[in-house]
Structure formats: C-alpha cells, structure tokens
Design a protein that fits this description.
Blueprint (H helix, E strand, L loop, with lengths): L3 E7 L4 E8 L2 E5 L11 E5 L5 H4 L2 H8 L2 E4 L4 H5 L1 H7 L12 E2 L5 E4 L2 E7 L8 E5 L2 E5 L2 E2 L2 E2 L9 H11 L8 E4 L5 E2 H7 L4
Parallel strand pairs: 3-4, 4-5, 5-6, 10-13
Antiparallel strand pairs: 1-2, 2-3, 7-8, 8-9, 9-10, 11-12, 13-14
Length: 197
C-alpha cells in the first residue's frame, strides 16, 4: 500500500498536522488540536515543543492511546503552553505531556514505512525533522523560501543555518518538504530560492 498523507490545519496559528498512513497503521506529525475518526494511530511525533504544534497532544493521547514523542530539549517549550495561551485569552490549558524522548537518527516503523528523526536545532533547541519515503516533514525549521524565526526562547540563528544548509540541503534535491505552516516545496527549490542562502 502506498503511503497516504492527509494534512490538517488546526490551532491558534493554523499549524499543519500530517497524518501518515501505511498498511492500516498511522502516525501523526505535530498535534495542534484533537481530531476525530483517526484509527490505529501508533505514534504522535512532534517536530518541536511550541504551543501551536502541541495543544492537542493530551486529548489525542486519551482518544487513541498513541505514544507521544518530543526531543528532550523542547520540554520547556511545551511547559510554556498554558501561559502563552493565556496571552490569547484562553485559560485552563493543560501542559502537553510526552511519553518518551526522541534521539537523532532514531527510526520509527509503521506499516511498511520507516520514519527517520533528524535533529535540526535553531528554531528551538530540540527541533527535529522527519524523513520518510523521500518526504521531509520539517516543522518550523524550513519553509517555502523561508526558515523558522530565531528570536523566541531557545532560538539560535547559527544553529538554524547549520541545520538547514549543512543537514537538510544535503538531502536529495527531489525530496518533498512539508513544513509546519504554509505550502510544500522541495529541497532542490529551497537550495536556490530560500532566504537563508
């Protein structure tokens, strides 16, 4: 069965959430809200801990029993979610909680597919991208013609520059890029059009 990708925009900043399904098993990359009718969800994999990518984590874990993973360095970003949501006028938000921590190079299997974790700090300390079947899910590290901001807590432009130019740009030019916000692109396109070059 071919890898199926569904995109859900949800949350206060309309983050992209990606549901990947292969041979009856599913993985959700980022979880900015709760979703109905998702079956056989094996993992919830977070690209980073910013509130707009993690607000649905606790509810989805309750609904599906899926394990939640984040890079350890971004737990503090997740812990800040309630205070940030208060600035939007929303009270009573629970701190999103991960079950386990990611490691660079870690591989997750679902259906007949494998997802590789690539640690890409810069937007946050614990930012990661996920590579599966020639497709890169880049969170807020890499966007079409742009990169993630570095002026928030944990941001570091030199680290982001290294992550994009020395790690992600080493991938095949044909690699499709699915970012945390906005439109998809390719590594080849970004190597000639991205603002970071």
């Amino acid at each position: 069965m071919k890898l199926d990708i569904k995109i859900y925009e949800k949350g206060p900043l309309q983050a992209n959430n990606y549901l990947l399904t292969d041979n009856g098993e599913s993985v959700l990359i980022d979880c900015s809200g709760a979703f109905d009718n998702i079956k056989n969800l094996k993992y919830i994999l977070l690209t980073h801990g910013h509130f707009d990518h993690v607000l649905g984590v606790n509810e989805m874990k309750k609904r599906t029993g899926a394990k939640v993973y984040v890079f350890k360095d971004d737990v503090q970003r997740m812990n800040e979610s309630p205070q940030i949501m208060e600035s939007f006028g929303v009270d009573g938000v629970e701190i999103p909680v991960a079950d386990e921590f990611l490691t660079d190079g870690q591989v997750f299997k679902f259906g007949n597919s494998e997802i590789k974790v690539i640690h890409t700090p810069g937007h946050t300390e614990g930012g990661v991208c996920y590579l599966v079947d020639g497709k890169l899910f880049s969170g807020d590290t890499l966007f079409k013609e742009s990169v993630g901001r570095c002026d928030l807590a944990g941001g570091n432009f030199k680290k982001l520059q290294h992550s994009v130019k020395d790690i992600l740009f080493k991938l095949d030019d044909e690699t499709e890029v699915f970012p945390g916000h906005g439109m998809s692109t390719t590594i080849g396109y970004e190597k000639t059009h991205n603002e970071i070059i």
